[in-house]
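#lab-general

N.A. 3:47 PM
ok so I finally got the sequence cleaned up, no stray characters, all 328 residues accounted for. can someone with queue access submit it? mine expired

B.Y. 3:52 PM
send it over

N.A. 3:53 PM
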Amino acid sequence: MAKELTIKNKIGLGTAPLGNMFREVPEKEAMETIQSAWDEGVRYFDTAPFYGAGLAESRLGEALSAYDRDEYVLSTKVGRIVLDEEEEKEGLFEYGRKNKIKTDYTEEGTLKSIEESMKRLKTDRLDIVYVHDISPDFLGDEWITKFDEARKGAFKVLDRLKEGGYISAWGLGVNTTVPIEVALELEEAHPNLSLSATQYTLLQHERALERMMPLAEEKNGGLVIGGAFNSGALLGGDFFDYQEITPEIKERVKRFNEVAQKHGVHLKDAALQFSTAHPAVKAVVTGSTRPDRIKEDLQALKADIPAAFWEELVNKELISANAPLPQK
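B.Y. 4:20 PM
back already:
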């Protein structure tokens, strides 16, 4: 039976990079990353079949099999089935396993996905299940049709599992705000925890503040925040929301850096604290293949950031005046 859901330190390890996102990650490096997270006290781990066609789930399952299942919170996702048939890959997981992936939000597909995920994760239960990428950025105009498929299939299955105590929470795992908003307003479905990637961050949060965050509070649908650095853009990377960064975003990051340097603040610290400051947010998940980054992320949540830093960001309209700010 599902246990009471608590996420220690409001932080979790996101395992998309461990599915060989963007590059081939050696097995030893992947295992050391998970071990480092555990050693630093992280007890929430998020994964998905999509991450390397089951590779991230298998790696996570292997690493966590050494520990008592009651000691950690585990989430994975439904909506994609990993097939035995193989193909040449491109895109985010070009270096992942070659297995074809089928998009499927039906009741049958959802149950099959859960069963196969539990095998790869070497576990007899899941704590949280997210309906994955049922969103315009992945599905284009077809997302509405697929959302309806999920409403009749995945949502009903997950509601049933939650009511039966087999999982503690379910919701959507998406990179846009609208699908979460629509799901929260459905009368026949009851999502109580969704994973919102890239949408409530230091760099990007105005749209989320308009509807998603208030709805999450009103409907008791908490949020886990992913992609707090917007694919690394905030920290000087070449990507913003999984796409090549634009000159406009680079200029905005430069302005953030100027304020941060003035106040002696690390933008990583500010980003993680900003994303977790909203009362609807239960945790933030950060993904990495570098074991030392986990310690950095935990320290970032505790770093001392002067109020003047936040005030200047508001005054320069770099962040919304309506955003809840971290309190020390």
